[in-house]
Amino acid sequence: MRIQRTLPPAAAPIAADDICKGFHALFSGNAEVENFRAEVQNYFQTKHCFLLSSGKAALTVILRALKRICPERDEVLIPSFTCYSVPSAVVRAGLKVRLADVSPETLDYDFSGFPVHSGHDERLLAVVCPHLFGLPADIMRMRRTLNDSGAVVIEDAAQAMGTKHGDRLLGTFGDAGFFSLGRGKAFTAVEGGIIITGSKRLAAEIENCMQALNPNTAGDGFRLAAYALALSILTWPAFFWLPKAMPGLKLGETLYNPDFPIKRFSSFQAGLARGWQNRLAAFQAVRKKNVLAWQKDLARFSWLTPIPERNNSAAETPPLIRLPVMVQSTDLRDALLKASDAHGLGIMPSYPGAVNGIAGLQCVNGPDNFTGADKCAARLVTFPVHGFVTRRDRQKILACLEETGKS
């Protein structure tokens, strides 16, 4: 166990005052939840909004609702390199996973070899488009590619709440969008998921699915309160070494597990979220500033390529939750991660492998090779950009990069 200042890879701090608001909301009942739902609906200017226990629960409910609309379709296309919660949700919804490769330059779909083209695809129910780390996926290009296939576009904006592309918020480009309020996301309520859609028909089926969900209990509220209190303390760099040293917590691990709870959003979470728009804006401003700083600082290391590459435009720079960086080789990537772990620098790997390599997951096109996903898994790292990153932290990281580059 190494006791030292340790940067978390991502963070959206929870204050003691936020927790007090959450406790107060425990006794307010559904009114607090409805107030939060109305705020989200107004913020995204959407006709329909639903609140659930997690982002993967939100995706599962969307897919179940779509299956009710199109029972003859049972396949969902997802990227071969994405969070394992995405295939977990597809399987939880009782559907089949179909994969498409990603471009290591954008982390979006590799459209040059896209497996769906204009024309009908009678099995394809939906395509999930993740805004990975907050990088905007090309939703409009996806719509043009699908053309008249009949598949629905779902925006996975779990890591991109509040981010704009052009003059529109991510999550509003697709037929439906969802967000995560888990720890390490753009904004956190400890746990939580949000669905937005402009489709009246889809919203009606989502509402039907929501009616079947179990309500939250008082025990759920107090469990979340205890988790929020722990996060508010242990996310700080002075204390993050402690949870990082506890393997049972599985911090930073990407797990495939279709057996997860699907519940409604709780009043504690809604209370914890009070004032969320101001906090989200403040977190975004800090993250954008740090993304720009890293892009400038990393330009001198020829063996590192930030994604996106520097565009010299603060207005066009997304407020990423982590900055993805492609390393020139796997050996250099491993050396950098080893040094970061030793010094608590918060540089972390991304997902451990392509989705088709997940043990126990059956994919429609499982045996295929996905070279873009394999490259990302072998060479991608992420740099911390949250508000706990100080100037001294950046200097330590840059010194670490200098040493690693010499090896």
Largest sheet: 7 strands, mixed
What separation lies between the terminal Cα atoms?
Answer: 26 Å
The CATH superfamily of the domain at 16-216 is Type I PLP-dependent aspartate aminotransferase-like (Major domain)
Q: What amount of the residues lies in strands?
A: 5-15%
Radius of gyration: 21 Å
At the fold tier of CATH, the topology name of the domain at 16-216 is: Aspartate Aminotransferase, domain 2
Shape summary: globular
CATH class of the domain at 16-216: Alpha Beta
DSSP helix fraction: 25-40%
Provide the structure class. Answer: alpha/beta
Number of strands: 13
Textual characterization of the structure:
The chain has a domain at about 15-215: Aspartate Aminotransferase, domain 2. The strands form three sheets. A seven-stranded mixed sheet has the order 1-9-8-5-4-2-3, sandwiched between helices. A four-stranded antiparallel sheet has the order 10-11-13-12. The chain starts with 15 loop residues before the first helix and ends with a helix. Helix content is about 40%, strand content about 15%. With about 400 residues, the chain is α/β, with parallel strands linked by helices.
